[in-house]
Amino acid sequence: MVAYMKTLFTFCLVFSLIACVYSADVHTYKLQNPPLRQGLAGNGITDIQQSENRLWFGTGKGLSRLLVSDGVFETFTFEHGIGRGSISALWISGDTIWVATAIDTFTETTGSYNDMGTGLSRSCDGGTSWQHFDQPGVTPIQNLTYDIVVFHGIIWIASFGGGIKKSPDQGVTWMDAPPDSFIFDPLGNLNHRGFSLAATEEAIWVGTAGGINKSLDDGETWTNFNHTNQQDPISGNFVVALANQESSNKDIIWAATWKAEGEDEYYAVSKSEDEGLSWQTFLNGQKAHNFAFDDSVVYVATDSGLFKSIDYGENWYVFPPMYDEVSGERIYTNEVYSVTARDGVVWVGTADGLAKTENNGYTWQVYRSFPQTGKAGTPRTYAYPNPFSPFRHNQFENEGHVRFQFNLLKGTTITVRVYDFAMDLVKTITEDEYYPQAGDYNVAWDGRNDYGDMVANGVYFYSVEIESDGTYWGKVMVIN
After folding, report:
1. Low-confidence ranges of the chain (pLDDT < 50)
2. Backbone φ, ψ for residue 369 (5° rounding)
């Protein structure tokens, strides 16, 4: 799975780029068949947006929504009218949804795999029907959309190879809209490589690989703020996220500002309370991905976890590990990609699932996507990810983790053990652990033996012994 995060900076375009107006092919779908699949689409949650009675989740395997009233996740895929692949951008306002999608594709010109935007999709009725638009630009290769915003009725998108574009006719035609007076050239002009967007009542804001840009006249003229052209500048010119905080007594622009090309640039969060004239930096050294606000409270999703400030950034609190004491599910990563908050309820999207807290992180509910075991001929247990690298997968507290998924038909005790290829015991993960009720569960292994040593590369077998049911076997390949 490729999680389309705003982390790519260096690239080589394999096509020539010209400034023009693009007319997109439009396809219309009605949500009839197939029915929506229940459950979360995927565990890489790149974006979370909420409307009045729904939450929307952009994942590496499609778009999911949660109806708050009944607590049921439903998933949209290309079969329902959106583009193929991962959700790379998401914008919600009431029943209007804009979604951008992207995939990996093999390009014969370069002989390698490249990102490819698979277009944008719009629903005006909460997902009941969709219109799909092909990716605007001379080619979709290395041209995927990272952000979407609607400002004064105009659709704006920030794309990697495609730069900044806008559509005045709801996605039918698109115009290049570089945030300066230069000829559109994302190959040679870092400020034309788009990554993030935000809108206030009066201004459109654009984050690129060349800083932050602001326009007060719908993109006719621009002001650029970067690391070198101000006395109190942003921390770095690679701007992967922008957001506007409108609290009861402040109006603030926040930016995730990463190190770009300057030697004195650095990763941090930058904010401006004077419309960009000056900036303050916080969380120095942190790679931030997204923001959320609950009036005066600020949440920042970073590679090191979820941070919170109740005083506009002067002091920060990092949330504790996300563990669901009821289900036993745990988030095995520090990487937080997305967050949304309202009235003290915080939803957090990570590289390893979705979590929710209503009490400042003291307790969590964790939601994950996984194929059910023991249903319609599926095995009673399986391992994932498989193959498993302890140094790459599900990194948490400097350890990698692989899950052994299984299901129970009733409340009982289980024992899980790992064996090498010669069937010698490597590790007893859990022994005679009691589970009070039927359901789907998993236990995690960190790739170490009973002595705490990392196991060698190879194939390993594991057993799930279920009292009064039987012993079920699976295997996992370890690659260090």
Report:
1. 1-20, 28-31
2. -100, 130
